[in-house]
Automatic annotation (TrEMBL):
Molecular function, one GO term: chorismate mutase activity
InterPro entries: Chorismate_II_sf, Chorismate_mutase-related, CM_bact, CM_dom_sf, CM_II_prokaryot
Name of the protein in its database record: chorismate mutase
Gene3D superfamilies cross-referenced by the UniProt entry: Chorismate mutase
UniProt xrefs under PROSITE patterns: CHORISMATE_MUT_2
Positions of the Chorismate mutase domain: 1-90
Amino acid sequence: MDEKLQQFRESINNIDAALVFMLAERFKVTQAVGEYKAKNNLPPADAGREQEQIARLRQLASDANLDPEFSEKFLRFIIDEVIRHHERIKAEAD
């Protein structure tokens, strides 16, 4: 294989690994948030917070020359998964 292509692929692999570990850490924190919400009888979803996060991420994406639409879809996927986790935690607490 071409050496330059191999270097690109190694960089991509490293970035993918970092993304996975960062997502794992994010979900550890959101798990704790879900437990806190369940104990304090707070709703699993917070539409205001979601909108703030989406706007913030869209701006970050724009600043980084990344498509804001893509970043919003990516964050929406994560938010939806977090809400499912929070709903499950709440159901288990009831």
